[in-house]
Design a protein that fits this description.
The protein has about 300 residues and is α+β, with helices and mostly antiparallel strands. The protein folds into 2 domains: about 120 residues, Ubiquitin-like (UB roll); about 140 residues, N-terminal domain of TfIIb. Helices cover about 20% and strands about 20% of the residues. It is built from 7 helices and 12 strands. A 5-stranded mixed beta sheet has the order 2-1-5-3-4, with helices on both faces. Strands 10-11-12 form a 3-stranded antiparallel beta sheet. A two-stranded antiparallel sheet has the order 6-9.
Length: about 300
C-alpha cells in the first residue's frame, strides 16, 4: 500500500448541526375592498369588482342566465339576466355590469319581467329549448308563451350534424350564446375550430368554410359540450339513447374520480345509468380543470364497460 494512501479508517465524521431553514413566504393577500349598493330595497355589501349577478346571488336572488358561465368571459348575448338600474336608460346585463357603490338595482320590476318574458318567448319560438335546464321553470315564472309567434317563426331549423363517433351537433337547439366559441378559443382550448358565421337569421356556429368536423381543426376535447346550455352539442351516447327513448337522467348516478390517463390529475364526474357510464363531465370548481378536459378524459371511457375476453 502506498504511503499516501488514505482509506479514511482513522477519520472522525461529524454531522453538521441542524439549521433552522426559513422558507420565503408569500405576503398575505389583503382583503378586497367592499362596496355597498341596494338590490330590491335591501342593502348589500360585496367585494369591489363583483358583478351585479354576484351581488344578487349573495342575497339569494335567483337570476336566470343562459350565456353566462363563471369560467368564461361574459359576452352579453342572451339578455335573460337583465336588471333595472336606476339612472340607466336601458336595462343592463347583470352578468357583465360591475357593481358600484350607491347603485339601486331592481331585479323583478315590471320592466325586467317583461323583458325576460319576451327574450324567452323569442328564443323559444325559434329554437328547441326542451332540453335546456330550468327554461321550462322560467317560462312559467314569467308567463312566457313562445307559441304566440306562430309555427313559422323558427329561424335556425337545420339537420342534425352527425359526422363523428364522439358527439353530435344539433343546431336546431342553438341560441348563439357564444359559449362554445369562447371555450374553443382564448378562454380555454385555443383551438379556434369554430366561430359564428353568417349574419342575421343566417347566423350560425360553424367550422371554417363549414367543413365537416373531422376535416376541421377540432381536437375533440369536448369542452364546447361542457358549456352548451341547451344540448345543441351532445355526447353521441346521449343522442343515441334519447333517440331510442332510453335516456333516463332520473336513474343516473354521478361519481367523481381522477383521470388515470396522465399525471395532471383532472377530476372526472362519471355519469352512469344502469351500471354503465354514459357520459363524462368535470366540475367547474375543480382547480385543475375548471370544467375542461381533453379527448381522453371526456370520451375515453368505453373500455370500462368492455366485456372481458373469454378463455377461447
Amino acid at each position: 500500500m502506498s504511503a499516501d494512501h488514505d482509506d479514511g479508517a482513522d477519520r472522525v465524521w461529524f454531522e453538521p448541526p441542524p439549521r433552522s431553514v426559513r422558507l420565503p413566504m408569500a405576503p398575505p393577500t389583503p382583503a378586497p375592498a367592499t362596496i355597498t349598493l341596494e338590490i330590491d330595497g335591501r342593502e348589500v355589501q360585496v367585494a369591489d369588482g363583483s358583478s351585479l349577478l354576484d351581488a344578487c346571488a349573495s342575497i339569494g336572488v335567483e337570476t336566470p342566465t343562459l350565456c353566462f358561465l363563471k369560467t368564461l368571459t361574459p359576452v352579453n348575448a342572451c339578455r335573460v339576466c337583465v336588471v333595472e338600474l336606476e339612472g340607466s336608460r336601458t336595462l343592463v346585463p347583470s352578468c357583465a355590469r360591475k357593481a358600484e357603490a350607491g347603485m339601486k338595482v331592481h331585479t323583478d320590476s315590471p320592466r325586467v319581467r317583461l323583458s325576460r318574458k319576451l327574450v324567452l318567448e323569442l328564443l323559444g319560438s325559434s329554437v328547441d329549448l326542451s332540453q335546456a335546464p330550468d327554461v321550462a321553470r322560467w317560462m312559467a315564472r314569467y308567463d312566457a308563451h313562445p307559441e304566440r309567434f306562430g309555427a313559422d317563426a323558427a329561424t335556425v331549423a337545420q339537420p342534425v350534424k352527425d359526422d363523428n363517433d364522439l358527439y353530435v351537433r344539433d343546431y336546431a337547439r342553438c341560441i348563439l350564446c357564444y359559449k362554445c366559441v369562447e371555450a374553443c378559443g382564448t378562454d380555454a382550448q385555443n383551438t379556434f375550430a369554430i366561430a359564428v358565421a353568417g349574419r342575421g337569421f343566417d347566423a350560425r356556429v360553424a367550422t371554417e368554410a363549414d367543413v365537416p368536423l373531422p376535416a376541421s381543426a377540432c381536437v375533440y376535447c369536448g369542452n364546447c359540450i361542457g358549456v352548451c346550455p341547451t344540448n345543441a352539442l351532445v355526447f353521441k351516447s346521449e343522442h343515441v339513447m334519447r333517440g331510442k327513448g332510453t335516456w333516463a337522467p332520473e336513474r343516473q348516478t354521478t361519481t367523481d374520480t381522477i383521470c388515470s390517463y396522465c399525471g395532471v390529475g383532472c377530476t372526472l364526474t362519471l355519469h352512469a345509468q344502469d351500471g354503465r357510464i354514459v357520459k363524462v363531465t368535470s366540475p367547474l370548481d375543480a382547480s385543475v380543470t375548471e370544467g375542461n378536459l381533453c379527448i381522453k378524459g371526456r370520451f375515453g371511457f368505453d373500455f370500462v364497460d368492455d366485456e372481458p375476453a373469454g378463455d377461447g
